[in-house]
Give the backbone structure.
Amino acid sequence: MTDEQSGAGDYRSYADRVVISVRIADAPLDERVDEVIEIETAGAAWHRDWLVAEVEAIPNVKNREGFPAPYAIDVQEKRHEWGASAAAIAITVFIASAVGSGVVGNGAYDALKVAARNMAVKLREAGNGGADPLGEAEALGRSQALILARYGEPAEDLKLVSVEVVPPFSASVVYCGSRGWIYDCDLSVVDGLVTFTRVKRRRD
C-alpha cells in the first residue's frame, strides 16, 4: 500500500475541513445556478488526491439523451499556521444544465451521496462519534447560509413557507425570496457524519 492510499504523506497535502459543491450551470464556472448540492465535513486529515478522485466520479452522469454532461472542477485550498494549524479544501463541480437538467441534477445528487458515504467511512475509521441530531434551528441556519452564499439573498429577505424535520438526520425547508424565487431545500447528515444540503430555486 502506498503512502497516498494509506493516508500517510506530506502534511501539506491534507485538510481538516472539506466543502464539496456541485452546481448545475449553463457554462463552466458560472455562478448563476438554479441548483446547488453541497457536503461539508471536518474531523479527519483529508488527503487532497483522495478527495479529488472522489469528486471526479460525480460528473460521470448522463443527460436525457444518454451523453455525459460537460463539466469543470475547481479546487481551492486555504492553510494557515497562526497559532493552531488549520487547512481547508473547497472543491466545486460545475455540471452543464443543458437539456435534461433534472436528469443531470438527480444523477449528481446520487453520486455526491456516494462520495459522502465514502467520507463517512473515513470519519468512522478516524474514531469520530457522529453529529448531533439535525434540529429545526440548524436546518434553517444551514439552508439560509447556503442561499446567502450562492444566491445573495439574506435571511431577512426570506419568507419561511414550510419546514419539516424528520428525526434524527433529515429536514426539508421551503422559502419564498424577495426576488420572486422559491427555494426548496433538502438537508441531511449522511450516516450521521457528513452534512448534506441541496437547494433548488424556481420562479414563483
